[in-house]
Amino acid sequence: ADDMHGANEGGGVHAAPNTLEPYWMPFTWNRRFKQAPKLVAGADGMHYRTPEGGAVLDSMAGLWCVNAGHNRERITTAIQQAAAEMDYAASFQYSHPAAFQLANQLTAMAPHGAFDHAFFTNSGSESVDSALKIALAYHRANGEPQRRRLIGRERGYHGVNFGGISVGGIVNNRRTFTQLPDVDHLPHTHDLEHQAFSRGQPEWGAHLADDLERLCALHGPETIAAVIVEPVAGSTGVLVPPKGYLQRLREICDKHGILLIFDEVITGFGRLGSSFAAEHFGVTPDLITLAKGISNAAVPMGAVLCRQGIYDALMADAERQGGTIEFFHGYTFGGHPLACAAALATLEVYKEEDLFARAAAMAPVLEELVHAFDDHPRVSDVRNLGMMAAIDLKPWPGRPGELGYELFARCFDKGVLVRLAGDTIELSPPLIAERHHLETITATIRETLDEIA
Ligand code: PLP
């Protein structure tokens, strides 16, 4: 039973026996998974393919990232061509043209014409920690080195590096690990009393942003470097910002000279029906963190977009100080040639197929389908915005997360990949999804829920 389905018998350099055991899977119930593994071996469009050849409809765009659908030929061809040309180039002291092309394109498409530089990373977690460092470096360059405090938010997810878990607000990701000093948190915006079963943005809750004024009064606004939020909190269950909330955060940050960072690792590249959430909400942050959909996930990549004036401040400071390197930070693989090739091809696909507009057009269909669960006896809340949605299930008493896993496992066996975060169903299909795909996804969820709950 330990043999990995469909894997080579023996083979490989050392011909080690092929079992599931040596792989320590991230954010996974390993003991349960290894009793009944769920594996995929191929992908195309809206579907994965199992090693046995079965089709699995993807309701999650992989992990909120394959926005243009799987195995897009233009993207895979671009990667193959780039790999044949040049395996690797660093961007420390020398670089390659595709990195500059991509920085040009990203800044050109960035919200409100307000961003003029891009810094490349390899993941969302790296983008977050890079953005936090850019914020601190900016204030130092601007003659305010005392601005070192970072403000995150309860139920925020900003990846798993030490910066990200410190500003993040998920207890299980934090309790075991040390944190950055000088961090505080805003309250999250999810309130069942006032917002249950909201369609799109809740009416109630803009005032929760005013808690930033309380933190300014508590710590001294001149000590605060940056506030980081996901415009829509994704991983903790699609928590949609109340109307006016993000605008209010922006106003308070402006009043006190605090940088506002939008973590758009999920919301970037069309998820809300526009290039970025900043555009959707009409709010311009100072830094935007990106990853996932930037390369359609075909090669790991991330980026930080910087608002006009941030890069310039670091250049001017280095000029005054007589320094050479302006920012002491970077990754060996940042701006990797294969990632840049994948991202450039991905941006072409988004544009040519007008996928962000397509997402905007399909969003009402997703909204109708998920809110059909509003009166389901096993459901405690339903939320949605753009092409993301969440359905909260009432957990099995004393066994949090087990109903969720059971639902995931049974849906997978029926040919639908559904992401469960604990007992919350999270939907974020590729932006190429058609009505019938979304209907199949929600029908399978309903049938399975009725079977087990
Ligand atoms: N920030 C946000 C908002 C995310 O949703 C994620 C991943 O889901 C991350 C950061 C971390 O990205 P990665 O897993 O690529 O490090």
From TrEMBL:
Its cofactor is pyridoxal 5'-phosphate. SUPFAM superfamilies: PLP-dependent transferases. Keywords: Aminotransferase, Pyridoxal phosphate, Pyruvate, Transferase. The keyword Transcription regulation does not apply. Coiled coil: none annotated. GO terms for biological process: biotin biosynthetic process. InterPro entries: Aminotrans_3, Aminotrans_3_PPA_site, PyrdxlP-dep_Trfase, PyrdxlP-dep_Trfase_major, PyrdxlP-dep_Trfase_small. PROSITE patterns: AA_TRANSFER_CLASS_3. The keyword Isomerase does not apply. One of its GO terms (molecular function) is pyridoxal phosphate binding. Belongs to the class-III pyridoxal-phosphate-dependent aminotransferase family. This is Beta-alanine--pyruvate transaminase.
